[in-house]
Amino acid sequence: MFHAAIIGCGGIAQVHAAVLTSLPDTEITACADIRPERAKAMAEKTGCRAYSSLDELLEHETPDSVHLCVPHYLHAPMALKAAEKGIAVFSEKPPVISRDQWELLEKAAAKVPLGICFQNRYNPNVRAAETIIREGTYGKLLGARAFVTWKRESPYYLDSGWRGTWKTEGGGVLVNQSVHTLDLLVRLLGKPEKVEAHMANHHLNGVIEVEDTVEAYLVLGGKPALFYATTAYTEDAPVLIELHFEKAALRLENDALEIRTKEGAEKKTFPVPETLGKGYWGSGHGVCIADFYASIREGRPYQNDLASVRDTADAMLRMYEEGRKTL
Ligand SMILES: NC(=O)c1ccc[n+]([C@@H]2O[C@H](COP(=O)([O-])OP(=O)(O)OC[C@H]3O[C@@H](n4cnc5c(N)ncnc54)[C@H](O)[C@@H]3O)[C@@H](O)[C@H]2O)c1
């Protein structure tokens, strides 16, 4: 049995708690949040002990793993703190918000199993696209485009206590809402070779200091990838990733995969697990977390280990290095 602790008991922590409760070999023994009412609610819901900080929790508890569901700036330092005690780390995305933080995570990953929650990598339509690329079903992959057009308004930032600032969120729509999509592009196409990006704050000037919109031209594994993400839209529209092959275009939208060839279009849907949180978080958390524990139990590498997110973190940090100049 793995004894797990959840750090940060806000929105996404509820999904981690539901998954950990459902798995046969994990048990939540402790949780922590600087907002005592949130830790208390989590403790009551899961039957674990509540603390007001990671430090306080570690004074009294020796969990096998911690789930970091805290604001972005805390992921890397908390990961290292837990790793120094020999505790495995499962961290929410993004892995880091700066290059200095990457060094902290490397130190942590050298000591303990460390996984990052890019749950969409487990989506069946993404898996199917990977197979098509590997097998060359439609010829060579030539390029890709991706769109994330969501809606976030002032209260989302103002009520959180951490979103909307460089210091604590580390950016806006790129580091938060659309980093999953960037991660999939990098995974499907390859290493970032060229990164050009522009950023803007179209609709929340005076509310947030970070970008609400980013557009980028990337060269990934030798192929161009066009990327556009914004939180200035009027709804959370489905994310679109389109892969352009010599003989087809593949569109990944929600859980479907549409294959467009000269002969016509075919839409494939796949059975997916129940969505535990908000619809736009997807349904991959369960399998992503279950695989983390299975990898530890079986002594094999974890698909979402630190090495596997290096290129995504690099692409994201380069987009900020470029994009912040235009903000
Ligand atoms: N993978 C996904 O699909 C997904 C979805 C949503 C959020 N996330 C990520 O999860 C993380 C949390 O996001 P959220 O939406 O749950 O935010 P949230 O604000 O709802 O929850 C964060 C919690 O952390 C607590 N906290 C802040 N500082 C703390 C500290 N020093 N020690 C302990 N607790 C502290 C806050 O009080 C809050 O309760 C972020 O990294 C976010 O990007 C991932």
Give a concise summary.
By secondary structure, the protein is α/β, with parallel strands linked by helices.
Q: What can you see in these coordinates?
A:
There is one protein chain. The chain has 327 residues and is an alpha/beta fold. It is 34% helix and 26% strand. It has 10 helices and 14 strands. The chain has helices spanning 11-22, 36-46, 54-60, 75-83, 99-111, 124-135, 154-158, 179-189, 285-298, 306-323, and strands spanning 2-7, 26-32, 49-51, 65-68, 88-92, 114-117, 141-149, 192-200, 213-220, 223-230, 240-245, 249-253, 256-261, 264-268. An 8-stranded mixed beta sheet has the order 8-9-10-7-11-12-13-14. The protein has a 6-stranded parallel beta sheet with strand order 3-2-1-4-5-6, with helices on both faces. β13 and β14 (264-268) form a beta hairpin. It binds nicotinamide-adenine-dinucleotide. Nicotinamide-adenine-dinucleotide (NAD) is lined by residues 7-13, 32-35, 38, 53-54, 69-72, 74, 92-93, 117, 119, 160, 176, 281.
What characteristics describe this protein?
Rossmann fold, alpha/beta, binds nicotinamide-adenine-dinucleotide, Dihydrodipicolinate Reductase, domain 2, 6-stranded parallel β-sheet, 14 strands, 2 domains, 327 residues
CATH superfamily of the largest domain: Dihydrodipicolinate Reductase, domain 2
Number of strands: 14
CATH topology of the largest domain: Dihydrodipicolinate Reductase, domain 2
Oligomer: single chain
Average of the residue pLDDT scores: 97
Number of domains: 2
Order of helices and strands: EHEHEHEHEHEHEHHEEEEEEEHH
Give the proportion of residues in helices.
25-40%
Strand order in the sheet with the most strands: 8-9-10-7-11-12-13-14
- Give the CATH architecture of the largest domain: 2-Layer Sandwich
Give the distinct bound molecules.
Answer: nicotinamide-adenine-dinucleotide
Largest sheet, in brief, is: 8 strands, mixed
Counted by DSSP, the helix tally is 10
Radius of gyration: 20 Å
